[in-house]
Amino acid sequence: MTLPRTADDADGGGGEPRDAELGATATAVTAPAPSRAGSPRLARLTDAYGSLERRLTEPRIRRRIEIAAPVAILGLAAIARLVGLGNPHLLIFDETYYVKEGWSTWQLGYEGEWAEGANERFEAGDPGALSTEADYVVHPPLGKWIIGMAMAVFGMGDPFWWRLPSALAGIALVGLTYAVARGLLRSVAFASLAGFWMAIDGFAIVMSRTALLDGILAVFVLASAGALLLDRRGSPTRTVRALAARRGRFGAALWNRPWIIVAGVLLGAGCATKWSGGAFLAVFGLWIVVMEALDRRRAGYRHPWLGTLLTQAPASFVLLVLPALVVYVASYAGWFDGGWGSQVMLERADLRWGGMLAWVPLGLQSLWAYHAQQLGFHVGLTNDHAYQSPAIQWLWLGRPTGFKMVTVEDGSWWITAVPNLLVWYAGVLALGFLLFHLGRTLDRRAALLLLAVAAGYVPWLLFPDRTIFFFYAIVFLPFLVIGLAFALQQLVALRSPARVAVGADAPTALDADLAAAIPPVPGTDAAARATASEPVDDVEWRAAAWSIVALLVVTSVLVAAWYLPVWYGIPLPDGLMRLRFWPPSWP
């Protein structure tokens, strides 16, 4: 499960040659590292690492790892998410809404009202508390259609079927994390790190084992990012060819961008799951336009920014937003035939639109009025909740969401959406590195990761008084983990040939084919680097850096083992349970 790696991976390359993808270090002929005095133990470590590196980059071994790594990661993710999925046999946290609404949408086509005591009856396998009266709900229907899929086929008596779609979405999220990291970093090793950490992260595991909307939203968002990376494949070459074919003052719009359409469909599905997907639609749309302008500038357009705004920006808007809008409206197909508020314009002629908008179908007018009411709810939601956590607390884990707590005879069990602490805090620190790296090199890969995290985080900062929960952060967790893998890749490559060969004016491999199409101008820094002496390959540095990476991996596994009881609801004595509270003042 990988994204194609090409010479154009401007947003997806580290500049390494094909043989270096396993460890993101170049294997081209380089000058030997200068000898340095050191302990015999360090020398043995360096020799062992060098031998291992050469072994792993052999074509036969590399091909096996390229297949085995994602398969093993997906297998681990499946085990972590599917084993014991039907336990507990209770509606956990907001499953009280989304599981029952998922069942309702498949029975009625819309969300119906439930009688008093519906939870107990539903948990017992009795759906008879559902009525045909439409219920007022505040989230779009697509996520609930997805949650209800397995129940529609296998029935609602077993909680396994309540949660199976969310678990499959969680497995897909791990696979997509690997694939996007592979396309972005061009390294099996660091993509495997990102995928592995997503597979064992408690936050991701709990969200996968609970039937909520946010994990489904995260899949659509990450998949759309992958589609945008695929659109970037060959983009600089495409721009150069367009310049050669049509030398207009502002250039031509490029309409043959199928992956932007795919991204639009996926982002529309995200918005149809939860409105917070709209932030990614806006940010990724901005990303497309900026990347096109940068390509035009490097290709020699006279007015790259103005030309992009006048030609490509409108085209990209149509390619991205129109499919998203179609998917979003289509998700309400069942609502039009009986959902709450769907008949308001038929019943209230005084509310109908007039003038130039009188032609709009009454169903769409009703949908607009319904959305206005939903918006009022979301903006004005200020009810207190024991586990609410304003976004300002998220990065330092001020209040992870407790999903369920039950007292038993000799202790208690909890299900808590607390991340793997090492991975989370290291990922937050990596954000600081990404900012520094972006400012120093203008690396577009770092920009994409930062924009994605910002799209999932910053909008919630604008509502400090609203009732907000930490589990909303699942939508940007994959980008945080990929950012950590990116930072570690840069650490390993700090004194490697790949790092030197990239150069300051080509911070990503995305510009590789564009650089080939536009030879360096004599007398410039780029030309000087093209004829520079061969870089020094510091194997000792890479051995030390990989030792740090290995230490992080081992420690993250130990952290996962420690917190496993509060991810899976395993009973513990109260004293041992309190040791797993995070922060220590929790709950």
Automatic annotation (TrEMBL):
This is Polyprenol-phosphate-mannose--protein mannosyltransferase. It is found in: Endomembrane system. Coiled coil: none annotated. Belongs to the glycosyltransferase 39 family. Keywords: Glycosyltransferase, Membrane, Transferase, Transmembrane, Transmembrane helix. GO terms for molecular function: mannosyltransferase activity. PANTHER family: DOLICHYL-PHOSPHATE-MANNOSE--PROTEIN MANNOSYLTRANSFERASE, PROTEIN O-MANNOSYL-TRANSFERASE 2. InterPro entries: ArnT-like_N (IPR003342), PMT-like (IPR027005). One of its GO terms (cellular component) is endomembrane system. The chain crosses the membrane at residues 65-84, 160-181, 188-206, 212-230, 250-269, 275-294, 315-335, 413-434, 446-463, 469-488, 543-564. GO terms for biological process: protein O-linked glycosylation. It is a multi-pass membrane protein. Residues 73-293 form the ArnT-like N-terminal domain. It comes from the Bacteria. Pathway: Protein modification; protein glycosylation. Pfam families: PMT. It comes from Agrococcus jenensis. Its main location: membrane. Residues 1-20 are annotated as: Disordered.
